[in-house]
Amino acid sequence: MKSVLLIDDHVMFREGLGLLLVQRLGPIRLLEAGSLHLGMRLLAAQDRPVDLVLLDLELRDSRGLATFERLRQACPQLPVLVLSGSVDDIPAAELIERGAAGFVPKSLGVDALVEPVRRLLQSAARCEPEPLSPRQRAVLGLLVEGKSNKLISRELDLSEATVKTHLQAIFRKLDVCNRTQAVLAAVRLGLVDEHEAERFRTMTSD
Hints:
Layout: E1 3-7, H1 11-25, E2 29-33, H2 36-45, E3 52-56, H3 65-74, E4 80-84, H4 92-97, E5 102-105, H5 111-122, H6 134-144, H7 149-156, H8 160-174, H9 179-188, H10 194-205
Helix pairs in contact: 1-5, 6-8, 7-8, 8-9, 9-10
GO molecular function: DNA binding
Pfam families: GerE (PF00196), Response_reg (PF00072)
Protein name: Response regulator transcription factor
């Protein structure tokens, strides 16, 4: 089942669009957030990556291009369809250039959002990820063992800053936002054994 996160601080718009998407697109898992902070927390809390984010740029806790940039920095590979209440103030071409999957003015109404969402979800089938380097595979293996960045740096004789850089690259290549999602993606792709992942889940839930 495809999953969509709608980040918009207008409750009526959010609920109306969510209901329409479920009616028109069939079974989807719809997540909702009224702020960028809550949306990013929801993304980080998921056991598997979200397929698409619908993002209003004008939120209580973030406005304009900075809203998009903050989300892209947290999840660089995540498809984001930008929504805006003002066509004139938002440079759509710049958003696309910066990696947005699309741009839809709210003035077109919620019906206009259905087809772009349908198209993006259909194309959201993930391609074969970029392969991990040997060093990244080693970092991933220790991550699955539940090792902290400090312990990983000691075992691989790396600085903690270098470990963080490797983890960011792993997250980007696996199209995930956090350590738990990275482990689950690694299991799905056959990079680690399911028993190792289960041990990781047990340790992190304690």
